[in-house]
Amino acid sequence: MTASATQTSPRKRAGNGAARRIDADEIGLDALVGHAGYAVRRFQIWIFQDFIKTLGEVDIRPTQYSVLTVIGANPGLSQMAVAKRLGIERARLVHLLDSLEQRKLVKRIKSKLDRRSHALHLTAQGETALAKFKRLAAEHERHVEEKIGKANREQLLQILAGFT
Amino acid sequence: MTASATQTSPRKRAGNGAARRIDADEIGLDALVGHAGYAVRRFQIWIFQDFIKTLGEVDIRPTQYSVLTVIGANPGLSQMAVAKRLGIERARLVHLLDSLEQRKLVKRIKSKLDRRSHALHLTAQGETALAKFKRLAAEHERHVEEKIGKANREQLLQILAGFT
DNA sequence: GACAATTGTTGTCGTCAACAACAATCTTCC
DNA sequence: GGAAGATTGTTGTTGACGACAACAATTGTC
């Protein structure tokens, strides 16, 4: 194997084979530490995992929660309107609604104004379920607060308000 | 329960059929606005899209960039070490490295200390390529700065430093 | 009334996280 | 020294998700 001595100032010389045991926490991230995307990605993974876990007992995932919340606050919306507002593909929303409708949380009602579209509503069961989901989601949000701090969380929300 | 969410339009009234045309920007997000996860998710999608676009000419995606950067800064690491450090499944890293090795950016060298593991190194071609990737990634980072503001970006990095 | 646009739907493709199982190889412990 | 257990890389599957393309039904426009 060509050793190909690397000259570009690495922090740890290792000729070609492995050198020694390296603890995970002494591995440098180099340029990654300056990239917002990397930090945001890791944070987002953490946050989703906590959300999924916290709402595990009711088996609701973040996307499902967002769809239910928007329908609950805006009854009668079309699928297209929900998809646009939440940045979800309308093709994907079809499956999401199939699942939620099967669980009797949502119903699609044929619109009489535009017979192409469906008016989306929560069922009575969906309303009470959503109330519980919101309580659990609030609990999840407290976990976030504990993780990054109350002030930081609020600042985060403010910084990213433009993306909602 | 919290049925009346948006105050902006008092009568949403949609008994069962559809009501009226609703503009996308007047749909209330209700509880979602208070969830950091929602904002973070939307932001992360935006940031990845810009990254993929900005590094489109070299066909490098965020995860590939992170792997190359870490290997470049820590030559000789095992796949397990890289996977742990970046929070990637080791099963997934296999395919990532297959691709990068096929493109002659990375090579796997059999470790002599532990014959189970591979020592990961950039090729000479990989080193020069990574330098270019870093320039493009820096350009992407400037896009982020333009989007949310210089001070906000730095504050974001600081808030989320614990997740890197 | 003809033609373009929209809505919901179905389907495919590729990325990604999460598991499970396996062979080869270390490590530990008796 | 050797059996038992853990680790490393690999292969495979599953499911959520974003992106696209095509289609029928319906609406809007000219």
From TrEMBL, chains A, B:
It comes from Bradyrhizobium rifense. Residues 26-164 form the HTH marR-type domain. It comes from the Bacteria. This is Winged helix-turn-helix transcriptional regulator. One of its GO terms (biological process) is response to stress. GO terms for molecular function: DNA-binding transcription factor activity. SUPFAM superfamilies: Winged helix' DNA-binding domain. It holds the Pfam family MarR_2.
